[in-house]
């Protein structure tokens, strides 16, 4: 007989649920490392695909390894016409995260073999998911406007190709580089809610497409990845720098959460928010100022003043939307873009999970009754 001896901790706060060497967060000092490498160094020198390789396979690739990884991903970017046809039937009013979750699951209809002991299958699934998820996000964006999806362009790198498929124009190189850095910053973050969801699904030894679909569904929520969209809606609602203080005071009085702030692990400003703020400033220098940025900076100042004592600071979702907005990306695509990046982290944890698997099956503390007699419906 197994006896539950542990105290119940809501939200499993600070409860270790796995061992992992994928990434590490020091929440007191604001440090994030992927496979031991600080995020600041990667953001300066790496690319998203190199970072994805590092996360998934555990080491930085050699030049040949990276070339072959990038080549394979370019080759697999197209999606089957049957998936495009399925997506055409999605309601254009549907949220792109729902479209993405459905499309990611649909990949399993074509590619799932559950051959989890076959390294070729594992590599194929990694390549297909990294390659096809951006194509599906861009395709839904064009299709919901009544246009045909743009085919991937084999001459373009990962970030440039995504922006090209989305806007039907070649992006400015600085915009593409900034977008690629955003992807790196969002690629992985230890055992957050969506990664945990991916790990639980992976632990049943199901197919990787189901793993990613379950993680996408979890990322969508406004307390997690969905907060980046909510931040821009909040900045629009605030409308001016003068309105910031009353907005924050009212939110605190009503005990409502201010989007883009707070974190289970970070008790200082999220290091990714610092880098994203810098990227936003870089973009504004080149393409013109955004008044929402002034609102955001004032909001950060007032939230720190009012909630800093509780360890509530800006998180990754606070400045990302300002960057995407400046790149001309619609607000409801911010979270799907987060998902494009996070596929790398989810896949890294999927590999780790199936490598040393035990199905997740925690216990619960039952709070109901026992031995209640069944009453037939006509006697109730
Ligand atoms: C990619 C990501 O997922 S990053 C997070 C994105 N989510 C958001 O930005 C949504 C807003 N933030 C939040 O809802 C929370 O901070 C979470 C979900 C991120 C973390 O939740 P938890 O670790 O459970 O923290 P919890 O909600 O217990 O907050 C601790 C205290 O700080 C306060 N607090 C935390 N975040 C905020 C916030 N955004 N606004 C106002 N107060 C906050 C809480 O009210 C609580 O105060 P109390 O102790 O007086 O009751
Ligand atoms: O770690 C978390 O709980 C949320 C987060 O910042 C992320 O997933 O990037």
Description:
There is one protein chain. The chain has 16 helices and three strands. It folds into two domains: 21-221 and 341-355, Citrate Synthase, domain 1 (Orthogonal Bundle), CATH 1.10.580.10; 227-326, Cytochrome p450-Terp, domain 2. A hairpin with a 4-residue loop joins β1 (23-26) and β2. It is mostly helical. Strands 1-2-3 form a three-stranded antiparallel beta sheet. It is globular. Helix content is 56%, strand content 3%. The longest helix has 26 residues, at 119-144. Bound molecules: acetyl coenzyme *A and oxaloacetate ion. Acetyl coenzyme *A is lined by residues 11, 192, 223-225, 227, 257-264, 307, 310, 312, 315-317.
Q: What is the makeup of the main sheet?
A: 3 strands, antiparallel
Classify the beta-strand content into a percent band: under 5%
Overall body shape: globular
Number of domains: 2
Instruction: Tell me roughly what share of residues is in helical segments.
Output: 55-70%
């Amino acid at each position: 007989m197994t006896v539950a001896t542990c105290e119940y901790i809501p939200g499993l706060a600070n409860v270790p649920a796995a061992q992992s060497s994928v990434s590490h967060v020091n929440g007191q000092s604001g440090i994030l490392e992927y496979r031991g490498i600080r995020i600041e160094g990667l953001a300066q020198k790496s690319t998203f695909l190199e970072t994805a390789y590092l996360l998934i396979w555990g080491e930085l690739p050699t030049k040949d390894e990276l070339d072959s990884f990038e080549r394979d991903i370019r080759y697999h970017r197209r999606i089957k016409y049957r998936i495009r046809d399925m997506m055409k039937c999605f309601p254009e009013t549907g949220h792109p995260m729902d479209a993405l979750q459905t499309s990611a699951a649909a990949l399993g209809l074509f590619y799932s073999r559950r051959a989890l002991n076959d390294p070729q299958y594992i590599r194929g699934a990694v390549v297909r998911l990294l390659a096809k998820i951006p194509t599906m996000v861009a395709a839904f964006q064009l299709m919901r406007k009544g246009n045909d999806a743009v085919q991937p362009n084999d001459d373009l790198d990962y970030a440039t190709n995504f922006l090209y498929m989305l806007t039907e124009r070649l992006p400015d190189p600085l915009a593409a580089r900034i977008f690629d850095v955003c992807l790196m910053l969002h690629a992985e973050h230890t055992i957050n809610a969506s990664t945990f969801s991916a790990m639980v699904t992976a632990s049943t030894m199901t197919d990787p497409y189901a793993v990613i679909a379950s993680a996408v569904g979890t990322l969508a929520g406004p307390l997690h990845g969905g907060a980046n969209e909510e931040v821009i809606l909040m900045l629009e609602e605030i409308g001016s720098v003068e309105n910031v203080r009353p907005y924050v005071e009212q939110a605190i009085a009503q005990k409502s959460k201010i989007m883009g702030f707070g974190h289970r692990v970070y008790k200082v400003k999220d290091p990714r928010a610092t880098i994203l703020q810098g990227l936003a400033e870089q973009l504004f220098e080149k393409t013109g100022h955004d008044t929402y940025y002034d609102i955001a900076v004032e909001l950060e100042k007032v939230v720190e003043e009012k909630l800093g004592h509780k360890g509530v600071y800006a998180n990754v979702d606070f400045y990302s939307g300002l960057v995407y907005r400046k790149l001309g990306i619609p607000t409801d695509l911010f979270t799907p873009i987060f998902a494009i990046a996070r596929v790398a982290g989810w896949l890294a944890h999927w590999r780790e999970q199936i490598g040393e698997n035990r199905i997740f099956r925690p216990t619960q503390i039952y709070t109901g009754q026992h031995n209640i007699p069944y009453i037939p419906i006509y006697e109730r």
